[in-house]
Amino acid sequence: MDALIPFTTSGSLVDLVDKKVMVILRDGRKLLGVFRSYDQFANFLLESCVERLHYKLEYADTDLGVLLIRGENVVALGEIDLIAEDRVPLIPRPLDEIRTKINEENRRKERDHLIKSKVLETVGFVSDGREGDAY
C-alpha cells in the first residue's frame, strides 16, 4: 500500500537523476543541465550546465559547467524531452546579440511603464509599486 503513495518530499527527485532538466530560479534565470545528485533539502548538482537567455524564438547559452543549486532558490524543475527538444523552432544567436535585444526590450518596458504611470497620475491613481513587488 505504501508503494502507491506518491513522494511529496525531495525523494520525488529520484526519477530525475541522470536526466536532462530545466531549472527556473527565483531570479528568473533558466538553467539546463544533467541532474546528477540531490540531498534532503532539495539542493542539487547540475552537470554540463548552461544558462539560457531567450528573446522570442532566439536563444543563446552561457556555459556554466558543474553547478550546485540551493533548493530554496528553485521555482520549477522539469525533465526535458530530448525528442521534443529537437522539434522546438528556436534559433541560436550570439550571446551579445541576445543580451542587446533583451536590454532594448527592458528599456522599452520601463519607458512604457513611466508613460502609463504619468497618465494614471493625471486621473488620480498612484503607482506605488511594480509587478513582482509582492515577493
TrEMBL record:
Domain Sm, first and last residues per copy: 8-83
Coiled coil: none
One GO BP annotation of this record: deadenylation-dependent decapping of nuclear-transcribed mRNA
Signal peptide positions on this chain: none
Keyword terms of this UniProt record: Cytoplasm, mRNA processing, Ribonucleoprotein, RNA-binding
The keyword Ribonucleoprotein appears for this protein: yes
Subcellular location: Cytoplasm; Cytoplasm, P-body
GO cellular component term, pick one: P-body
Entry annotated with the keyword RNA-binding: yes
InterPro entries from the UniProt entry: Lsm1, LSM_dom_sf, PTHR15588, Sm, Sm_dom_euk/arc
Subunit architecture: Component of the heptameric LSM1-LSM7 complex that forms a seven-membered ring structure with a donut shape.
Protein function: Component of the cytoplasmic LSM1-LSM7 complex which is involved in mRNA degradation.
Family per similarity comment: Belongs to the snRNP Sm proteins family.
Protein name (Swiss-Prot/TrEMBL): U6 snRNA-associated Sm-like protein LSm1
Gene name of this polypeptide: LSM1
